[in-house]
Amino acid sequence: EKWDFVLVSDIHEMGSEKEIKRKKFLDELSKKGFTIKKIEDTKLFYGVRAPQHIFRKYQCLMGNPDRRLQSQSSPQGIPVTTRIRIVHFILHNTVTPDFEKLQDLMKKKVFEAAFPLHEKEELTEYLNQKWACWRGVFSQQPIEKIRCYFGEKVALYFAWLGWYTCLLGFAALFGVVTFVAGITIFSSSQVSREICEANTTIMCPLCDKCPFWVLSEACTYAKVTHMIDNEATVVFAMFMAIWATVFLELWKRQRATVVTDWDLYGWDEEEEELAMQLINNLQHEPRLYQHSYFRSTIVLLLVLLMIVVFIGIAHALVIYRVIAMAFFSQSSLSLLRERADVLAVMSGAVLHYITIVIMTKINRHVALFLCDLEKPRTLSQRENNFTMKIFTFQFFTNFSSLIYIAFFLGRINGHPGHYVRIAGRWRLEECHPSGCITDLFIQMAIIMVLKQSISNAMEYFSPWIRHKLRKRHKRPKKRSVMLGEEEEAEDPCKAQWLSNYELNEVNIFSLFNEFLEMTIQYSFTTIFVAAFPLAPLLAFLNNLFEIHLDAKKMMRLYRRMVPRKANDIGIWLQVLEAIGILAVIGNGLVIAITSDFIPVQVYKYMYSHCARENRTDVDCSTGYINHSLSVFHIQNFEPSVLPNITGREIKECRYRDYRNADDYTYTVQFWHIFAARLAFLILFEHVALCVKLIAAWYIPDVPQKVKNHLLHRKHTDLRRELSMMEYSTEV
């Protein structure tokens, strides 16, 4: 027997309020012609099957939109995915005499669950063996079969994820080449060599209780920095800005081809919703569009308040790094003292990841609350509103600390003798003499590795453990008679319903979670990729397994999703386009502000010996480090924080900045570099955005094949209508 849905309820006492409410709801379904089958165990299971006239009405109103799918998966009737979608809609919009819907009854514990079934059929076996398995990691996804089982929305998600992963391979290859190019200059960079040879350059203390140190002690750190921060990084950042545009434009073409094959190019979601409302209740009146400026203002203020909270969390992480730096620097362990700056960065990155995990759960509840305040008209509108809010919250949660490191670290900390302090006590961090980009590299590497290892492990093993526990604790025992009702001894549906009930519950945001995860990953892959060229490679490797991890969860660990029809990925496309623009701005700022690329170029062409005399036997960046370090006189230190100089004749120290040695005001070089940074930023962003616009124009969103197919279809339909009109006139 085929059943569209299964309702699960606890066994309530005869005549109790819950039992009466359950009976009223089932009676309403019976009045609509539904067939209901009851199986009793430790729970009550009700199989629900809709009458055929409901589906004939749907086909009449919508013009049989599933004719192709019908011929493939259900030659005798309407496709299973459409049946489930229609029955789900009717179940959730059926009103009892007490004006209660299924959702209200589930909140009152009248019903515990409602779900469609994972059927044991040929299609299920194929997906389990060819798709939801690790053997198919490098195989092409069966998108058409996924559509036949889970519906168009899920199929489009996997089509998009597969397309994204495929094109991510090219970005990963370019990133690896950029990283390898950096490795080749690991020891040959002139700037790194100068730092390693600066045995007599005394640097100012990194914290109030820290000692003076010699610049050559930072030799390894400098080599790593210039392995990341080089000319190849600029080219890679430009490439990724173009790649993001090309990826989205090619996806639009792929999406147009796919939905045209599905006969969904001109599908209207609102029309289908109205049709199902009328099928459920012929007297239904549509809910009109409404907009409240008062509610919108309240929502906007609350969103801004949340953003302030995220900025506060970023400040807390900054305070932690400052305190951790001071703590590690004063440690009795030499390893902690010598690597205090790196350990502070790494521990801060781990703490940032923990805040991401915690705030993700809080963000979801806040976003849902704000959506309820807006009172959206439809489920799609609610999803769009929720998407924009949760993505905004998650973006600030994930990137607020990265933004501080990239654009503020070492630029707002003051200078020796006049440091900016937190609570008048702790000094803000300084950049390393070779630049701040390594801090950003470490932060991104740790967060991406943790998110793609621990988070993915939890994403799979958490539902797996819950499923095993449900099977152990909720495995029903055989019952013969209860409450005076007899049960069939071995009903053929019983085992199937029980096994589906033991799976994890699916909510309306299950697919949303997967989209959000990939969108945040896309942000990491594009926005700060100039500081972490290996981000595309990590994302590519992760996605190869993510596709089949999601498939295994959907097929084996979760109840069957309610199939939903769709002809695109919805508002996520707009989110991805916004990320593409942010990627241009972010990478331009990283190269202009975080990187030392601009200061080195300014030195080469304005202050080096190459600018004064035409010589080719010496590297033009020779002398850059000495040029980029300012001089500070020891007697100008604040008396309360004067470093310990016992046994050392030190009168001055160096620090990273462009300031005069007399009054510590900015030098002319500082303003030259500032102007060059600004000019590069404007030039980079305008060139990148122009290239993006040209690429968007050059690559049509809809292939000519699809346009011609739609043109021929319109022509054929019009000719058929005209022929029928002439025939009827002759008759």
Automatic annotation (TrEMBL):
Domain Anoctamin transmembrane: 146-710
All residue ranges annotated as the Anoctamin dimerisation domain in the record: 75-143
Membrane topology qualifier: Multi-pass membrane protein
Location(s) in or outside the cell: Cell membrane; Membrane
One annotated Gene Ontology cellular component of this protein: plasma membrane
Predominant location category: membrane
Keywords linked to the UniProt accession: Cell membrane, Glycoprotein, Membrane, Transmembrane, Transmembrane helix
Gene Ontology MF term list: chloride channel activity; protein dimerization activity
Sequence intervals crossing the membrane: 154-183, 232-251, 297-322, 342-360, 390-409, 520-545, 566-593, 674-699
Family from the record: Belongs to the anoctamin family.
Protein name per Swiss-Prot or TrEMBL: Anoctamin
Gene source species: Furnarius figulus
